[in-house]
Amino acid sequence: MLPRTPHTDLQVISGAATTENYLEMQKKQGRLYLAKFLNLLEKQDKTGKFLEIGPGPGYQTVQVANRIKNSMIVALEPSADMIKVASEFAQSQKMNGRITYVQGIVEDEVLMASLGRFDLIYSTFSLHHWQEPIKAFANLYKALKPGGTLVIYDFIRHWSTYYLPLHKGLKESLRAAYTVKELQEMFNVVSINTCEVKNQLPMLQILIKK
Length: 210
Hints:
This protein has 210 residues and is an alpha/beta fold. The protein has a single domain (16-209), classed as Vaccinia Virus protein VP39 (Rossmann fold, 3-Layer(aba) Sandwich), CATH 3.40.50. The chain contains 8 helices and 7 strands, in the order H-E-H-E-H-E-H-E-H-E-H-H-H-E-E. Strands 3-2-1-4-5-7-6 form a 7-stranded mixed sheet, sandwiched between helices. Helix 3 (80-92) links the parallel strand 2 (71-77) and strand 3 (99-103).
């Protein structure tokens, strides 16, 4: 198996221009690359209190809120600049009161515990950035209510994509992604037994139920 090349930092995207450009990119391309994920989320048939990990500039958060009307979303994001852009976007989409942004990382056990418990937790394209994924999964599992579901959608590391002539950011993400076997080993460490990991090249889909 090709070796994993981790990201060397938290990949916190900052700067007003950069974060605003990120949102504009998502507005143009989000329907395409988020379609399968949003359909998967709807199939979980969950309402109530949601937690999103890594919302970025907030485009995805608003799409989830629009699709699942009976939901209140807490979105955990490490970048203060992303939170500013996301909050303004949510306000422009009349999401006041339904979306709350919190600055921090998923590996922070104290912060995660302070957020409470959730009916649905989800994340897209952030798993490969996590610096301590075992700790993160342990925190996320604790944050699920009984009967709750965790949905993770990310890249998968595979020889067929490893050497493709892609732009630097995407290439680094594919090389920092995990294999199904690596994830299953992590789940064994934190005693997560009710899980389903699917290889859907170039994507990886994880469903964990509590």
